[in-house]
Amino acid sequence: MRRTLTVVVAWVAAVVLTGCGTTASEPPAQKSLILATTTSTQDSGLLDELLPAFTRDSGWQVKTLAVGSGQAIELGRRGEADVLLVHSPAAETEFVAEGTAGARRLVMHNDFVLVGPKEDPADIKNANAAEALKKIAAAEAVFVSRGDESGTHAKEKGLWPKAGVTPGGSWYQSTGQGMGETLRVASEKAGYTLSDRATYLAQRGTLSLEVLSEGDPGLLNVYHVIEMTKKAGDLVQPDGAKAFADWIVAPPAQRLIGEFGRAKFGQPLFTPDAGKDESTLGQ
Q1: What does the pLDDT look like over 237-267, one tens digit per residue?
Q2: Which of 88, 107, 130, 233 has a CA 20 to 30 Å removed from the CA of 142?
Q3: Which pLDDT tens digit goes with each residue over 266-283?
Q4: Per-residue b/e over 27-60, b at no fewer than 16 CB within 10 Å?
Q5: Domains of the chain
Q6: CB 200 within 8 A of CB 60
């Protein structure tokens, strides 16, 4: 009962905020699974490309909860999602070790970028990530953090120590929101933020932000699919989880991922990685 109430509330909120999910006009799904995923897969538009194809190929309808990776993992931990598509590797590894999740498989990657106003008051253009953050802190230029325990937030928190900086004060601001909203706030405040490249490119036309620091090997952004099991809760649907995970790492879905964004942005927004040695990514 707890899973049902929590998921219904969360899903309705996600549908209202993102427009993703089954609408009232659609017939009831005979097979329906819950996907907990990151806001970057939603805000970039990737889910709009993948989920209809998955439903067509498998017969499974998908109810999507687009939240930060930390929240998505927590939904899995509580048995309130059937399958996860997330990008917080350290948290994922710890979660899988707990024993309630099933297989964790590599799906794709892109990268993180530091974006900011064209005027670049902290002069970070072409600096590596650590140097860029050090300059932002020294200038006390506005930096907008997601602050939501997402994969992006986890990556950001890991970068500050490398810059020798403990962020704080009026220049360091937190939204507690997803990537799309955080980019909007950074744009309005003429501030800097860390973004996955896909969401930035998808929303670039509405933002007064430019990519100022990129290409740092430490900014790799890797996504995995994690199947949940009955050990997380009696209402988890392992069959649906496996169907989605098998589908997203299979060649047809990997081709869709590899082509997504190419026509509109002149480059793919994600690189498909199923079956690759993860240690070679970004090389």
Answers
A1: 999 999 999 999 999 999 999 999 999 989 8
A2: 88
A3: 989 999 999 999 988 876
A4: eeeeeebbbbbbbbbbbbbbbebbbeebbeebeb
A5: 2-109+222-280 (3.40.190.10), 111-219 (3.40.190.10)
A6: no
Instruction: Give me 81's structure tokens.
Output: 């999602």
- Cβ count near 106 (within 10 Å): 19
Residue 86: CB atoms within 10 Å: 30
Q: What was the pLDDT predicted at 283?
A: 65
0.90 exceeded by the pTM? no
Partners of 172 in beta bridges:
143
